[in-house]
Amino acid sequence: MKILQKSELKAWKKAKKLGPKKTIQLLKKQGLTGRGGACFLTGLKWELVKNAKGNKFIICNADEGEPGTFKDKLLLEKNPENIIEGILIAAYCINTKQAYIYLRGEYNYLKDSLKKTIEETLTASRSSLKIDIIQGAGAYICGDETAIIASIENKRGYPHFKPPYPPQKGLFGKPTVINNVETLANVPLAIINKDWNDSLRLFSISGNVSKPRVYEIKVGTKLGKIALLAKAKNIKAVCFGASGGCIPYNSNSIINAEHICKEEAMLGACSLIFINKKKSMLDLAINIAQFFNHESCGKCTPCREGNTHILKLLEKIKSGKAKQEDIELLEKLSITIRDTALCGLGQSCTNHILTALNHFKKDFKVR
Amino acid sequence: MIKLKINGCEVTAKEGEFIIDIAERNGIDIPHFCYNERLERIGACRLCIVEVKGIDKLQASCCTQVKKGMEINTHSPRVLEARRINMQLLLANHSLNCTTCKENLMCKLQKYASELVIEDSIFGETQRKDEIDNSSVSIRRDNNKCILCEQCVRVCNDIQTVYAIGMTKRGVNTRITPAFNNTMKQSSCINCGQCVVACPSGALTEKSDIPKVLEALNSDKHLIVQTAPSVRATLGELFGLPVGTPVTGKMVTALKNIGFHKVFDTDLGADITIIEEATEFVKRLKENKNLPLITTCCPAWIKFGEQFYFKELNKNMSTCRSPQAILASLVKTYYAKKIKKDPKDIILVDIMPCTAKKYEILRPEFKGEADFVLTTVELAKLLKELNVDFQNLPDSEFDNPLGFSTGAGDIFGHTGGVMEAALRTAADLIAKKDLKKIDYKKIRSMEEIKEAEISIAGKKIKICVVHTMGAARKLLEQIKEGASPYHFIEIMACYGGCIGGGGQPPPHNKKTLKKRVNALIRVDEHKKIRKSHKNPAAIKLYKEYLGKPGSEKAHKLLHTRYYRKSYV
User: Domain B92-207 classified CATH 3.10.180.10?
Assistant: First the structure.
């Protein structure tokens, strides 16, 4: 995997030589976009914060909690050096002395090795940057950037409405860059490798496959090719994490954001869960609904209250007691949650139902 | 200024204003629960969602800033559909026993549910079966009615800095509760009731004493009632009168009609408070000791002080009782003796703007004095229960000997009033003459911290008036550090003072509160006597019974002491 190539501070040295402005320009030219799912231009994000005056911060979002997503874990295990170097470069570019890594609670076991890498990298780079590891406590919502901010501020891990976006008003009210682990790991490579390509990404592949793992695949690859790699057979659907929704399996489907968006799903952080023909999409929907019911933070009405009723309706369908009007209510409720919830979690937590109802209506039997 | 369209009509706004505020200004009521002009915007209830042309998702109008040329629809079919679903979701987790709920007919949840024409509960019955917390003497907490708008939490934590309640658990199990799921009684709650005023769904209500008062009204005891200064400025609102209509005369008639033998005026207590406090202030000023002097009319602030600042600030707190406690003590001593009755045969009911007064009368040092406290809202309910045609009542006067008050007593009900009243008397005491200038307009505004420097007989005195405990905390920290420049500080726990108390009718927005302040100022201005120490009833009391201000007897009956309070 190209992403596992170690920069060994070559990028850091190059960035120091280029200066912040030119480094940001280089990243923009290389076209590095965020790997968290929103695909925002990383250089642009940095530039927004660089130009702000006063205190500012950088946060590495290592709270990878999306079901079926495990690519950041691989990077934290196999190439933490590049992540730390990416943080160093980001901090240098935006001019801050304080960085945070918000580490997923379940990745606690990585904390010590990460600390060691931080110490070694900081010593080797002779940087005065302070990098603190903040541990999550297991809440899915704390993967949302505004909830991370609240959590680091010692507040309840609640998301905040946007705008203001973190680059305008972030941690402790100061401009803040929040980047995903994979984004930061790519920063050194994008700086030192001329042939670096933004479309090469880490895909977390799981579900009904013989070889579930992280693959490095170009965005735009056909689904059939990916299925072949992971040895997936008799597939009927592919789910994009829990929140991205699903599409029916078609070997010619092109896996990129635009194409999947056309099918009303979301590629997000490139997590593909393959579902074979033996499985019912209703069972999957119940499983995912249980997850969101458990992980809704409770702040906004549609997500907090809505998810329990989604689950209840799905269970009613499963029990065979549901009528057509229950399906209609399920759809109406799903749309309302999507349209009115406060944060990204809420707005996407019913994608799986809406897409499944669209493509696999047969799995949702009513009396 | 920019132009935009709401529901097809062009409106102007400042760049960066929020949709809900512009809509309100233009007469459009967008249903909302979590939004409150005085609190941080959180955008949680998702009832105020609107459609904005060009934006895919519906936007919460309380936290969406307008841009030039925006086209907003606040009541489109798509908006109404989504709003109805969100309302249904709230109702499905709210115990729907409306007819027996204290908030019935005053409830915002009910109002908007009715406006959205919610007829059937599509998501079924509530699953919550939480225990009702009746531990506090002032506030009843029924989590089964909570819709998690967090207004109470934000008022308690951000405005009052009391931190009695907070959020716990998550998702559908989210609850608002004191720390460690303790009861309100164990918490740091100061009983100010600001959470009660903020609550839109009846989850937080005042602890009702109406049944006890009704029972008392049917007893053969001698029944006395006293009414606090601010009640006369707000009671009318609950009977459909415009905000800021003083209803002193009607209120007195109503109380007499329902069976009270004597209606006394807490304003007289206020006048006596001032006489004692001004004496105390002049003495401290002369000795230059224990300054700044802090007023102690507000029981919520007293509890706050006892909990958080007892060690450092006990000496600064005035030992003078609150007007309520002064009048209560006089009723059960002076008045009882005068009418030759055993104090045990007298029942004293206090009509107060305040939920903390329910706590104050239960303090051990005031035992046997006031018997019950009804808030303004409770009094209105009681009068309605007894079928009093309030609007058409004639006026009557308070009863002697504890019914005459000055304008200084009236203004006790709003922020700055206690200070203004005290200055009127202290200035005369220091200058040893009857000064003409008695209006201290600088301290009448709604700003949270108001300071002024005045010179009396060549002496420069720095005063400060503060309302809300969050703002007060700043001053208290300053005193703690020994850096306070002030001689005299007035503290009221509620925003706007007692006219914004926890027992007053909602809403407590700036506009309403300002009108209530003006009502009290008008009452004061129309009084012939506007200085407490000129009150003939008070003068007579001192002559007949108390001796001199600050005398031993006065100290016994009119002063108190404070205790360190702990909380979980």
Answer: no
Rounded CA-CA distance B507/B379 in Å is 17
CA distance to A263, B87, B292, B523, per residue, from B300 (Å)? 59, 35, 19, 26
- Looking at the domain B2-90, which fold is it? Ubiquitin-like (UB roll) (3.10.20)
Interface contact flag, B60 A297, Cβ < 8 Å: no
Contact call for A302 and B57, based on CB within 8 A: no
Q: Which of B68-72, B158-162, B218-222, B434-438 has the lowest mean pLDDT?
A: B434-438
Q: Say how far residue B491 (Cα) sits from the centre of its chain.
A: 13
Domain A2-192: CATH superfamily is NADH-ubiquinone oxidoreductase 51kDa subunit (3.40.50.11540)
Of A310, A308, A295, A301, the C-alpha closest to A342 is A301
The 8-class DSSP code of residue B440 comes to -
Grouping H, G, I as helix, E, B as strand and the rest as coil, residue A237 is strand
Q: Which CATH number fits domain A200-276: 3.40.50.10490, 3.90.1300.10, 2.40.50.100, 3.10.20.600?
A: 3.10.20.600
Cα A226 to Cα A134, A204, A294, B344, distances in angstroms: 35, 11, 31, 89
Residue B49 at interface with chain A, using a CB cutoff of 8 Å = yes
Q: Is A336 on the interface with B (CB under 8 A)?
A: yes
Give per-residue pLDDT as tens, A282-339.
Answer: 999 999 999 999 999 999 999 999 999 999 999 999 999 999 999 999 999 999 999 9
CATH architecture of B221-558: 3-Layer(aba) Sandwich (3.40)
Under an 8 A CB cutoff, do A298 and B172 touch? Answer: yes
Whether residue B192 contacts residue B360, with contact meaning beta carbons closer than 8 Å, is answered with no
Q: What span, in angstroms and rounded, lies between the C-alpha atoms of B141 and B128?
A: 14
Domain ranges of chain B: 2-90, 92-207, 221-558
User: What is the C-alpha to C-alpha distance for residues B232 and B29, in angstroms, rounded to an integer?
Assistant: 29
ipTM of the complex as predicted? 0.94
CA distances (Å), origin B158, targets A268, B154, B195, B196: 37, 5, 12, 15
CA B159/CA B300 separation, integer angstroms: 14
